[in-house]
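Entry 0007
Protein: Queuine tRNA-ribosyltransferase
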Amino acid sequence: MFKVKNKVGKARRGRLTLAHGIVETPAFMPIATRGAVKSITLPEVKALGAQIILNNTYHLLLRPGLEAMKKLGGSHKLMNWDKPILTDSGGFQVFSLSKLNRIGEDGVEFQSHIDGAKITITPESSMEMQRAIGSDIVMQFDDVADGQSTRERFEDAMERSLRWARRCRVAFDTAHTNSQLPTPNSQNLFGIVQGGIHEDLRERSAKGLMDIGFDGYAIGGLSVGEPREDMYRIVEKTCAVLPEDKPRYFMGGGMPEEIVRNVFAGVDMFDCVLPTRNARHGTLFTWNKDPKEFGRELVSGSWELGSSDFYQKLNITSERFAFDQTPIDPHCDCSTCKTVSRAYLRHLFAVGEPVAQHLATIHNLRFYLRLMEELRSVLE
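Output (C-alpha cells):
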C-alpha cells in the first residue's frame, strides 16, 4: 500500500507499506545483486539508514538457482535480512551481460556469463524465480533496448514488454490464488514503462500498463546511453501520465543531481551502482555544504534543479591527500568520516588493503542515504 503524505510541486513525500516493513519515500535502494552489497555487510547497510535493498533475479537464477533458493527459504532467510527487498526481473542483465542472446516472443534465450550454459528466461519463469526469492517488490520481465536504438527497435521492445507484462500479471496472480507464496499477498508486482526517448511510445507504454493494473510503476530503459536532457524530459512526461496513488521507481540511474531533479519530477524510488562502484575505485561523494542548508535551499527555490554544486567527487587516491589529516567529509556523519583521515584512506588504497574499499563504501552509501533523508525532510 502506498500513501502520498505531502507534495511540494510535483515532488512527493510518501510511505510504502510492504510485508517486511515500511519504506519512507523518496528512497534509495542499495544494490545487493547476488545477495550482498559489495564490500560491506548487511548489518552495516541497515545501520547506514537503508530501508530496502535490491536483489537481481538473473544472478540468483544462475547461482544458487531456482531449486536451491526454494530450499533455502528465499533471500530474506538466506541473507538474514528482515527489511524489504526489490528484485530486478533480469531483463536488463540479459541485455547488458550476455553477448549471445536471442529475443523471441516466448522470452530470451542466452548464454550464462559464468559457464556459457544456455538458459531461457520467460515472463513466467521470471515470476517463479522472484517468487522463490520472496521479494517484497517483483518487477515484470521486460525487453530492454539499447539507448542508441532506432525508433523501430524501441517500439518493438515496448510492445513486447507490454505483452510480457500481461503474462507476468497472470502468472503472478495465479501464484497468489494458489497460495504458492511464503505468505499470501506478501508480494507486490510493478510494471516497467519502456519506449526509449520517444514521448508517444512512453505514453502508450504507461497507459497500457495502467490498463493491466500494477501495484507500482517503474521507468525503465533510461541511463543506457541517452543524453541526460532526454532522460529528464522522458521522466517528466512519464510521471505526468502515471497514477498519483502508486509508487514510481526510476530504474538503475542516479548521479546525486539526477536523483534530486527526478524527485522533483515526481519519482519516489531509486537504485544505482554508482556509490559502491565509485567507492571501490577510490572516488568519494562529499558535501560542499551542510546537507540541511542544501535542503533549505531546495525548499526556497534558490538552488537550481539539476545543478551538482552541492557536492563534489573526491579521488582519494590522489597524491595531494598524502599528508591530509582532515576527515574525508566534515559534513558527513558516517563512521568512516568520524574515524579515518584522508591521508590514512589514501594510504590504504595505495598499499592495496581491502579495508579501503570497505571504508569508502560506507561513506558513499551514507552520502546517498543521507541525501534521501534530507529530501524527505524538506518534503514533509
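Curator remark: DSSP finds 15 helices and 16 strands in the chain. The chain has a mean pLDDT of 93.
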